[in-house]
Amino acid sequence: MENNSQDKKDTIKYLIDGIYTKKEAKQALEILRDKENDEIINEQMSKAWDKTQNLSESNTFEYKSDLDRAEKLLKSMNKPRRDRKLLKYCIIAASVAIIIGIGIIGSKYLGTISSSTLHYTQISTSYGETKEITLPDGTITVLNACSHLSFPEKFSDKERKVKLEGEAYFQVVKKESQPFVINTEKFEVKVLGTVFNIKAYSGDEIQSINVESGKVQVDMPDAMSRLSASEQIEINTKTDNYAKEKIDYRNVAVWRIGNLRFSKTPIEDVAKQLERVYNCIIIFEDGQTFNNLISGEHDNEGLKEVLESIRQTSGIKWKVDEKTNEIILYK
To answer: What fold is seen in the domain 258-330?
Structure first.
């Protein structure tokens, strides 16, 4: 009994603070609808309430749409008394409503507008190039090398939506009635006003969102998560696994000052990043397996210095093909 009770506590706490999948949200609903769990629910909701005390009443972006969807779902349940009580919990701690509203119903967008009515601007960067852009709302975006950003000449009244392929650092102007939405191939990020970095190169194994200040919401096909300052989530595009962890906010987007930083980064992703930064071609020796994870920081170093550092820490050697001028990695 004691273990079962702890499992229920962990489930509710995880769904409030972590990454929410549809399966887990359904499990949470079963727990919430069982009257035997009232004591556990009250305990966790009390803790969630404490977390909301510093939030302003005007911070409706994070909760209103989720509460609306949760209320509709609750009205469809078969236990009226339990529904009213659960809705009260949702109002006290909107985290549960987020699970119900997003995890179960999975609304993809906060608002829609016909793309035919908007005229889009596309900004791109080439190898070794970064570019700073001021968007129509005053948001500042810095594009990393080999990245593409698409945005309308004028944002709709409901939301500010852009599309990103590659990597970009955002300083979003706060507009509570007009959420800022970044759409990528694998996920969507929603914010009001915050500073963060998105790495979403389509060919990379690892994609990530790193928050410097403020909060962001990350919607993935079968999960969602909310990140605060000094937090990141990494998405493995091969396995579809997600990992959320604490980070040093000072390490967010160090590429803007010419630095490189790898943290257990697959060697193939490292090679692609070096190609983008140094405008080179890197290939791997045929017949060899490369599953190394690379970590290290490089402050405005040249390509040869970075390759030599990788050799010293991983044992992966490098050479230059004089005919093709390609860099070959080998063991």
So the answer is: Phage tail protein beta-alpha-beta fold (3.55.50)
**The pLDDT value given to residue 176:** 86
- In this structure, the strands spanning 293-299 and 259-266 are antiparallel
Angle between helical axes of 303-314 and 267-278 (0-180°, round to 10): 170
Owner of token pair 């989720």? 66
Instruction: Report domain extents, the chain.
Output: 2-105, 115-251, 258-330
User: What pTM was computed for the model?
Assistant: 0.70
Burial level of 140, CB count in 10 A (0-12/13-18/19+)? middle
Cβ partners under 8 Å of residue 267, min gap 6: 290, 291, 292, 293, 294, 310, 314, 316, 329
Q: What is the pLDDT of residues 24-74, one digit of tens each?
A: 666 666 666 666 766 666 666 555 555 544 544 344 444 444 444 444 444
What 88-93 contacts at long range (C-beta under 8 Å, 24+ apart), as own/partner pairs, is 89/32, 89/41, 89/45, 91/67, 92/45, 92/48, 92/49, 92/52, 93/16, 93/45, 93/48, 93/49, 93/51, 93/52
Q: Do domains 115-251 and 258-330 have the same CATH topology?
A: no
Amino acid at 166: G
Give the tens place of pLDDT for each residue, 174-221: 998 899 999 999 999 999 889 999 999 999 999 999 999 999 999 988
* CA distances for 259 relative to 8, 171, 277, 296, 312, angstroms: 45, 20, 10, 11, 19
Architecture of the domain defined by 115-251: Sandwich (2.60)
Q: How confident is the model at residue 226 (pLDDT cuts 50, 70, 90)?
A: very high
